[in-house]
Amino acid sequence: MSSRLPQHANTELLSAYLDDEVGLVEARALESHLESCDACRARLRGLRGVVHQLSALERPAPPPWLITQVRREVLYTPKESVWARLGRALMQVPFAAPAASMLVSVTFMVLLFSSFGGGIVKQGLPGLANYPGPVEEPKADPNQQMIEATSEVAGRKFVRHEDDDVWNAWLYSTAGPAASAASAEQPVKNVWVEQGLPSSTTPIARIDARSPQGRALLAHEPDLGYLLADGSRVVMRYQRETLELRSGA
Amino acid sequence: MEAATVTTAAVHDVDLELVRRHRYGDVRAFDEIYHRFDQMVFNLALRLSSDAEQAADLTQEIFLRVFRYVGQFRGGSSLKTWIFRIAVNHCRSSLGRRRLPMLPLFEEPSEDERGSGAIPDPGRGPEELAVAADEGRRVAAGLARLPESFRVAVVLRDLEGLSYEEIAEVLGVRIGTVRSRIARGREQLRVYLEGSL
Questions:
Q1: CA A239, chain centre distance (Å)
Q2: Window 108-167 of B, Cβ < 8 Å to A
Q3: β-pairing, A139-141 with A146-153?
Q4: Which of A61, A66, A223 sits opposite B27 (nearest CB)?
Q5: Where residue B195 sits, what CATH number does that domain have?
Q6: pTM for the model
Q7: How far apart are CA B80 and CA B165, in angstroms?
Q8: Based on the number of CB atoms within 10 Å of its own CB, is B167 exposed (0-12), middle (13-18) or buried (19 or more)?
Q9: Domains contained in chain B, number
Q10: Between chains, do A14 and B183 touch, taking CB under 8 Å as contact?
């Protein structure tokens, strides 16, 4: 089957033809027309030139520091909960917003004062997303008054200590009171200690992540950056020695 | 055609596997998503904002949204078009508040606008490279002058290589509309480039 174009080809047809986005019949008709129409051939050439120039445009890579910044930001970005999604979906229904807000208020009050509410209060509201934080759920240790969590990074397991007293106690037991006092000058947020590290070992060096040694270490084990991203420290074995890595933030 | 279908299905499986790993807390999954799509997101943001610094900010914000919502990705489309949809919507809403930069189409580009050139080809001599760079700047300046709807369609097609069907999915419009926007964008750019010689 063949057909001919009644007049000159329009730009839309020529442009789609360049992209192979026209049907077979349409394409044959256009090709037949182009054989005898200098004006359409010239326009097609012009458009092909534009496409060629566009495809030759530079496609720069994003700045290399952007991934670090994104990782840092996602630490504080909670994943959307089921309740938030449900709420958002409800809000898109016309006239649902006032009813939904009333329902949410009533439900919240019921939960707060019912036996379920006790559960919420005891467990606490959902906090930060578990990316890229602990793999296991944090569990409270009533005896030591600290929250402990573990994270598997760079093929090693790390235990998080949130209480600076624990860190000081650990330092005291390993390096003595002087080190403990020096450490107390800077408030500790989190300390990730590699699991299985002998408690008798003292870090032989404290390395700033921004220093040449720190950068070299992170280049070798980039995932450690996850643990450092919020200003935490990491105590780990490296080449048979114990090191402390600081974010320097 | 069969090979293309197999490839698409394989990519789709990789997408779903990445999302599944992300849901289960695998920290590397999001990194992989970032590295697969960072360049395309950054370039889209760069062509829509015409400013590298702003494009970096937009890219960061887009990936934060991706991180937040990727757990909801169910594979109804490819991850690529899903992320492009987030990127386009975010650029539009973010730049729309600051007015999406659009320069008058028939005006000589200023020196400041000449930031993005053509890909340097090591096989060419210095003069040829200079000509190519100049041509790249003219094209980038012309692109920055296109109306936003045409510019997005042209960028997705000619710089990012999406099919008309994929672009329609990203923009939430019919294929006929995509075809029209691309054609009109290219035509306006052709006229601009001929006039700026």
A1: 30
A2: 116-119, 132, 135-136, 139-140, 143, 154, 157-159, 163-164
A3: antiparallel
A4: A223
A5: 1.10.10.10
A6: 0.58
A7: 13
A8: buried
A9: 2
A10: yes
Give the total residue count for chain A: 249
Do residues A245 and A234 touch, judged by C-beta distance below 8 A? yes
- My answer on whether B85 and B182 are in the same domain is no
Angle at the Cα of B40 (from B50 to B88), degrees rounded to 5?
A: 65
ipTM over 0.90: no
| Nearest-5° Cα angle at B75, B69 to B77 | 95
| Strand order across the beta sheet in which A233-238 lies | A139-141, A146-153, A156-161, A191-194, A233-238, A241-246, A205-208
pLDDT tens, position by position, for chain B (197 residues)? 455 555 677 777 888 888 988 888 787 889 999 999 999 999 999 999 989 999 999 999 999 999 988 888 888 889 999 999 999 999 999 887 655 555 444 444 444 444 444 444 555 566 766 666 788 889 999 999 999 999 999 999 999 999 999 999 999 999 999 999 999 999 999 999 988 76
Of the three residues B45, B75, B103, the one that is the final residue of a domain is B103
Q: Which two tokens stand for residue B89?
A: 């919507």
